[in-house]
Amino acid sequence: MRRFLIRSMHILLPLALLAAAVVLRIEEPAFFRQQQMWVFDLGNKLWPREFDTDGGVRIVDIDDESLEKFGQWPWPRTRMAEIIYRLQQAGALAIVFDIVFAEPDRTSPKNIVEIWPDIPDYKDLREQVRTMPDHDEAFAQTIKWTRNTVTGFALASGEAPRRPVQKGNFAFSGPDPRSFVYRFAGGIANLKPFEQAAAGNGNFNMVPEGDGIIRRVPLVVGYEMGGARADDRLYPSISLEALRVAQGARTMTIKSTGGSGETGFGEQTGIVSIKVGRKVVPTDGEGRIWVQYTGHRTERFVPVWKVLDESVDKSLLDGHIVLIGTSAAGLLDLRSTPLDPALPGVEVHAEIIEQVLKEQFLSRPDWSKGAEIAYIIAVGLLLTFLLPRFGALWCAMAGAASVFAIVGGSVHAYREYKLLLDPVYPSIAVLGVYLSASLISYIRTEAERRQVRGAFSQYLSPALVDQLAENPDQLQLGGETKPMTFLFCDVRGFTAISETFKSNPQGLTKLINRLLTPLTNVILARKGTIDKYMGDCIMAFWNAPLDDEEHAIHACESSLAMFKALDVLNEERRLEAEAEGVPFLPLNVGAGINTGECVVGNMGSEQRFDYSVLGDPVNLAARLESQSKNYGVKIVIGPETAKAAEGKYALLKLDLIQVKGQSVGVEICGLQGDADYAASPEFVAIKDKHDAMLEAYYAQDWDKAVARIAECRALTNGEMPELYDLYDERIAEFRENPPPEDWDGVFVATTK
After folding, report:
1. Domain segments of the chain as ranges
2. pTM for the full model?
């Protein structure tokens, strides 16, 4: 009977796993779709679309050199009209603005006179200037004259002040596609005269995937008028509208099939394709085109200054769809793509137009999900029933062959037919069936649990180790992201102390152990985990491996208790020094605490690993510990820790600082004491004066700030001289060299 059960497990367990794999593939959770996207990204990276210098698209670039030649942005609409005129004369098929002209031209004569001083002598001149041609009118007339200009607008979820003008018409083949497309209720449109004069009007909208990468771009979107879906208008993307205008077409035909979304086995319902002129563009069910990128190519770009001074080679523009966009610093509309982390949005539109013109389309065929499920079932059943008969080695070879086959097939389908097939999940499912049948996963899991239990006994309290041993599921192996609090503690002036032990290194080791032991006990007693000792420094964290909802509070408690323990140790050492007749050097420490999301788990190599953390909040905690000596306080805490500690501890705001290695400033505070001290009249008075000093400092009222500093020094009895010396020095420097107009008060630290 026992033998029968063991043999049955080789069948039942793989079959259960196989069934689960099929169900998950049918349901397709979000993380499966993300995994597919990474696979498709890899294909685009390995085999990008070949760039054709005569791809039919050019980008007229408002670059930094053009701004240097013709002045800051925005340019007068008369200059924009001149650009259109030059492009028309150069033979552009369509002129497409990747720019919104939502406001009147501030340089128009009638607008300029409004900002003139109200001086009687200007009256006649003011009236004469008002009669001069309006820049916006000239721009609209030029747009109308070209008969091939396309304006662009952006849609969003908020209510729009103006609805965009609909230029092209849509025809439907199949069900009404408005139930399938992305819908918006507002946005930013051009001034009405511009859109009315234009031959086309399209939206810029790109809807990124969950990881922020643009892989698919909607060719058509819906606009809900007054929240009534039945009154939706459809608007084409700017790339689709450019193709329509370039081909002289009036109507775009949307082909769709019944239902919404996808069926369980991959038969696509929703939008199938969009016909514009002579081009039929395959899409996914929501009307999005898969973009196969070439990556950034400078050959697409023509500087606008060359168009304006007529030095451009007109053959670059003749017969091309010309997009007008910008690569100038500060004006960039950057998008993340599989090939470029920051690609100008106008270049994404150019890539789409090129694909349509060359009819080079990526597609995820409607039979793809069914084929992948059939593969999982066929190979999974084969391995399940062959493994008991032929053994693990032969089945491993068969499974490896099947994996090579699907990977090779998907690569061939991508390269030759531009089909997106996922080889990864089916391969993983097959591998899971094989491993479950051989029970390897179970053996490895048990070994890993024993290893972790042994490792954690080194840096967790015995109570926590016991809790983990009883509930191992509370520990996620391999790493997880969660909010945590980190503490760094370091000895101040340790070099001077160590010099007194030159002839007695064993005594120095004993002193370090004598210091670290009580500090460690304080941390462990408050649910902390010791990450590592770095000489005379301690790194600890909270909320891992076991959850601790009050991790920031426990870290603050620990830091205050550490200083109490240090006072006890220093008193013991002072009495010992007096008895021995030797000089006494007290031990002083500084601490930094920060809270934030990090990855925590087993990290290292296959031969040796450690349970540790990674993330920017860890680095900030270390920097805050270093800053404690600069600000003359014992404990410096970060902004998230301060939020948790507000009202529970005595906190003084120290500064807005951008620490070394960081790109943004953060508000840091000094942890001065517990709740009793926070409520004391002494601290309340100090905090009021200190906050008033900072308010004056950030308002650049230097005299008032200096006066408040003097009051703070008096109230603190000179306990934090470094802090107020620091602000006195800054104010003196700012008196000589005032901060810029856009100064945000952030101090940029140049040292750790």
Report:
1. 2-47+380-438, 57-358, 449-679
2. 0.55
